[in-house]
Specification:
Length: 207
């Protein structure tokens, strides 16, 4: 079986991809590959995770040069996602999970079609209450985000207010796109129940 995991950053994609890896699956981590390529131009501190380093490099949507860095990130994302799909042909007899980034839905219709044709696309859903927690977490500790024009400040609004309002809209927009792409939707609370493991996850995906 070849799977691709989609959904927002922090929803559990990488956790379950790593669980599958421990069960013998090949784990293709797109976030790690992007960070690895950007490592040539980003200084990553010893106590800093790659995702946070990339977030620091990309900056906020109002920062000078953000648009150029956003475009560079998306270009790298398209490259590493394409390479992950290409690797599937080399592992026809092995189960593979592609651990995509939260912004994979912006990589283009052609690439998303290839992802859907070659893998079973699994979306890790986020309920409204959890989305609010994700907004608060993002405001406290920003991660790299491709805004794709959705950061729209209004006159008289504080930057933090704009960020919270626009990030909430971004999450809703992405949820709609994830669902449209997905073959399987994973309930947020189901995978967090006691005793839920790889076997249970694969039963949901297989059904």
């Amino acid at each position: 079986m070849h799977l691709s995991f989609i959904g927002m950053s922090g929803v559990g994609k990488s956790y379950w991809a790593k669980q599958l890896a421990q069960a013998g699956w090949l784990h293709l981590d797109c976030d790690a590959k992007i960070a690895e390529r950007l490592g040539e131009i980003i200084d990553i501190a010893e106590d800093e995770g790659p995702v946070h380093a990339v977030g620091r490099w990309m900056g906020m949507p109002w920062d000078a040069g953000y648009e150029a860095r956003q475009a560079r990130y998306l270009e790298l994302e398209q490259t590493v996602t394409t390479q992950a799909i290409d690797q599937l042909a080399e592992h026809e007899s092995q189960s593979v999970v592609i651990d995509t980034t939260g912004s994979v839905i912006y990589t283009g219709e052609l690439l998303l079609d290839q992802l859907k044709q070659t893998t079973r696309v699994v979306y890790f859903d986020v309920p409204d209450a959890v989305r609010q927690q994700m907004i608060e977490l993002y405001l406290a500790e920003p991660k790299p985000v491709l805004w794709q024009g959705m950061y729209q400040p209004t006159p008289g609004e504080l930057a933090t207010e704009t960020l919270a309002r626009c990030y909430a809209k971004l999450l809703v927009s992405r949820a709609e796109q994830y669902r449209a792409l997905a073959d399987v939707v994973i309930d947020y609370h189901a995978v967090r129940e006691a005793g839920f493991g790889v076997e249970e996850l694969l039963k949901i995906i297989g059904s």
